[in-house]
Prior knowledge:
With 183 residues, the protein is an alpha+beta fold. The protein has helices at 21-33, 50-53, 61-87, 100-126, 163-172; strands spanning 2-3, 11-18, 39-42, 150-155, 177-182. It has a 5-stranded mixed sheet with strand order 1-5-2-4-3, with helices on one face.
Amino acid sequence: MSTSNDQNTELYGILAEFRNPKELVDVSKKIVEAGYDKFDTYSPFPIHGIDKAMSLEKSKLGWIVLGHGLLGFTLAISMMYFMAVVDYPLNISGKPFFNAPAWVPITFELTVLLSAFGAVFGMFFLNGLPKHHNPLFNVERFKKATDDGFFVCIEARDSKFHADQVQQLLEAAGATHIEEVYD
């Protein structure tokens, strides 16, 4: 096991490398069974089934987008109703003040616009972004995560975290390299 502690800093977590995606899924299941919940996996491509192995909850992003879409729809209808019926009613060729077919394009556009804003800003919020620094980027070996490396990091802020127990768990799971990561 090696360490990347150049200064007197706080332990961020323990990073382990595995040979392939199957091993990463298997170790994720073992980590969940051991009771850890503050860990993440890193790979150069999406791995089918990793979210289930990590016992991740379904994303709330869909609900955020739906809420923003409904807000956009409501704002569009309310705005056009207020302008055409309440604030400045004009009788043009005997058409009704509440002319729903003419309002479809604006309603659609505002619904899509606010849904898109909800998706982007909801994603930023749920992912805790922007994150200006991640201690894993200081680990030279972690650069393989964008090419051919499969990593798992159990964070020290986990309530069950004890460095020696985590190292034993990762060694027993078949990690090819284990490293302590410091802030």
